[in-house]
UniProtKB/TrEMBL annotation:
This is Periplasmic binding protein/LacI transcriptional regulator. It is found in: Cell envelope. The keyword Membrane does not apply. The keyword Signal applies. It comes from the Bacteria.
C-alpha cells in the first residue's frame, strides 16, 4: 500500500462500525472451488455443504463441476488463476498430474486448499492444507468388520470388489486398507476387482459381470462407495439372489440411501465418510486470508454403521 492509502485506511478503521458500507468496506473473500462432479450421493451432499457454508460465511464462491475429468478441473483452476481469486480449493479427481497447474497457482501467489481427496506429490509447498478423511483407515474398518463377522467360518470366503474411480485417492486407499486387514487370514480371497467409477449405473453393470462369471461362488461384495453397492444390490436381486444374505455387502460413505438399504436388510454395513467439509473449508479460507497458520492436514472424524443400528441412527443422518 502507498503511504497515503495506509493513512486513509488507518483513519477509517475505527469509524468502520459507524459508517454505512462505503468504499472502505472489506470486499468479500473470493474462493474458486473445482469440484469432481456429481457422481454420487456423497458428492451431492459435499457440494451442498460447500455452497451453503460459503453463503453463511459471506464468501463469494465460484464453483465448477468437472464431470469426473481431470482436464476439466485443470481448466477450472486455470480460470480461477486468471480471475485472480483469493483462494483456490479443489477435490482432485485423481492423485497424480497436478504439478504444472499448481505451480502456476503458486507463481500467481494464490493459496490452494485440497479438500476430500489428496494428491501424490513430493512438493508439499503446492498446497496449504488437505482437509478430508483417512481413506486407508476406512478400508481397514471395512476389513475389520468382515474379519469379525466371519470369525469361526473356515472359508474360503470369496470377495468381489467394486473399486472407485481409477487413480483416485479413495479408490487406492480403501483397497489398500481393506487388503491390509484381510491378508492376515488366507481364507479371504478377492476373486474379482474392477472399477465402477463410484456410480450406481457402473456398480450395477460391473456386478452383473461378476455374477455372470462367478455366480454363487461370491460370498462378499466390498464396494468403495454406497452408490456402487446400491447399483450392485439391484444386479444381485435381478439375478435371483438375496443381497445382504446370499452375498454380504460392505460399503463406504454412510449416505441416506445406504441407511435405507440397511433398514431393508440388503446392505450389511457402511463405513462412514463425511462429505460435510464446507464449514471447515470456509474457516480455513478465512484463516489463510487473515495470515494465520493452518495445520497441513485436517482429518475428518468418522464412524461405522452396521445394519443393526441403521434404524436408530437414520433420524440423525444429515446426508
Ligand atoms: O466416497 C464417493 C465419491 O472422494 C470420498 O467420492 C470421496 C468419494 C466418495 O464419489 O462416493
Amino acid at each position: 500500500m502507498k503511504r497515503r492509502n495506509v493513512l486513509v485506511a488507518m483513519a477509517a478503521a475505527p469509524l468502520g462500525a459507524m459508517l454505512p458500507l462505503t468504499s472502505f468496506a472489506q470486499k468479500p473473500i473470493v474462493l474458486g472451488f473445482a469440484q469432481v462432479g456429481a457422481e454420487s450421493e456423497w458428492r451431492t451432499a459435499n457440494t451442498e455443504s460447500i455452497k451453503s457454508s460459503a453463503k453463511e460465511a459471506g464468501i463469494d464462491l465460484k464453483f465448477s463441476d468437472a464431470q469426473q475429468k481431470q482436464e476439466n478441473q485443470i481448466k477450472a483452476i486455470r480460470s480461477y488463476i486468471a480471475q485472480k481469486v483469493d483462494v483456490i480449493a479443489f477435490s482432485p479427481v485423481v492423485e497424480t498430474g497436478w504439478e504444472t497447474v499448481l505451480v502456476e497457482a503458486k507463481n500467481a501467489k494464490i493459496p490452494v486448499v485440497l479438500t476430500d481427496r489428496a494428491i501424490s506429490s513430493k512438493d508439499e509447498t503446492l498446497y496449504v492444507t488437505f482437509i478430508g478423511s483417512d481413506f486407508t483407515e476406512e478400508g481397514r474398518k471395512a476389513g475389520r468388520w468382515l474379519v469379525e463377522k466371519e470369525k469361526g467360518n473356515a472359508g474360503p470366503i470369496n470377495i468381489v470388489e467394486l473399486q472407485g474411480t481409477v487413480g483416485s485417492a479413495p479408490a487406492i486407499d480403501r483397497k489398500k486398507g481393506f487388503e491390509e486387514i484381510i491378508k492376515a487370514d488366507p481364507k479371504f480371497k478377492i476373486i474379482r476387482s474392477q472399477t465402477g467409477d463410484f456410480t450406481r449405473a457402473k456398480g450395477k453393470e460391473v456386478m452383473e459381470a461378476f455374477l455372470k462369471a462367478e455366480g454363487k461362488k461370491i460370498n462378499v461384495l466390498y464396494a468403495h462407495n454406497d452408490d456402487m453397492a446400491i447399483g450392485a444390490i439391484q444386479a444381485i436381486e435381478e439375478a435371483g439372489m438375496k443381497p445382504g444374505k446370499d452375498i454380504i455387502i460392505i460399503s463406504v460413505d454412510g449416505v441416506k440411501g445406504a441407511f435405507e438399504a440397511m433398514m431393508a436388510g440388503k446392505l450389511n454395513v457402511s463405513v462412514e465418510c463425511s462429505p460435510l467439509l464446507g464449514p471447515q473449508l470456509m474457516s480455513v479460507v478465512k484463516d489463510i486470508k487473515a495470515g494465520k497458520s493452518v495445520p497441513k492436514r485436517i482429518v475428518t472424524q468418522e464412524s461405522i454403521f452396521p445394519m443393526e443400528v441403521a434404524a436408530k441412527e437414520f433420524p440423525n443422518r444429515k446426508y
